[in-house]
Design a protein that fits this description.
The protein is mostly beta strands. 6% of the residues lie in helices and 52% in strands. The chain has a single domain (5-145), classed as Immunoglobulin-like, CATH 2.60.40.640. The strands form 2 sheets. Strands 2, 3, 5, 6, 8, 9 and 10 form a 7-stranded mixed sheet that branches. A 3-stranded antiparallel sheet has the order 1-4-7, with no helix packed on it.
Length: 151
């Protein structure tokens, strides 16, 4: 089962959507506000349905930087053939959740708070993982704050 990949697309990742040039994994991250609906879909590319034992989808945040790194799951879904769920990797699978009030995304010098959608597929004895970052809220980065003070 070589060459399998997970493709995640947030509904807001279309031309004309609000985008942010963020440090989040070097990609543009869609900006959402607390209380907004985050929705999208994923597919497991080049996997036949019989190869996939389970798929887990999470909307989560994690911290990076000095001190202990935290991770918290806001929403979690699991489909498993053991539970009788039918998994067709060729068909896009939808997800949707209302985003919480906090914690807001933050890109500071000492700590960063990142949000993402993470999809894990259990294919045979292998695990395939993909993440799609997004930003929750409009907290300025520390570099933006410093630039405003010196202007």
């Amino acid at each position: 089962m070589n060459g399998s990949a997970i493709i995640i697309q947030l509904d807001g990742n279309k031309p004309g959507g609000r985008q942010l040039d963020g440090g989040q994994l070097g990609r543009k991250a869609r900006v959402y506000q607390p209380g907004e609906i985050l929705s999208g879909q994923y597919t497991v590319d080049s996997a036949s349905p019989s190869d996939i034992g389970a798929v887990e989808t999470s909307v989560l945040w994690y911290s990076e930087g000095k001190g202990d790194e935290d991770l918290a799951v806001h929403e979690f879904w699991r489909k498993s053939t053991e539970n009788g769920d039918f998994i067709d990797a060729r068909r896009p699978e939808r997800f949707s959740t209302t985003l919480p009030q906090s914690p807001l995304s933050y890109d500071g010098r000492i700590i960063k708070i990142r949000w993402c959608v993470r999809v894990r597929a259990f294919v045979g004895r292998k695990e395939i993982v993909a993440e799609e970052p997004f930003q929750l809220g409009n907290v300025p980065s520390q570099e933006e704050e410093v630039g405003e003070e010196t202007s």
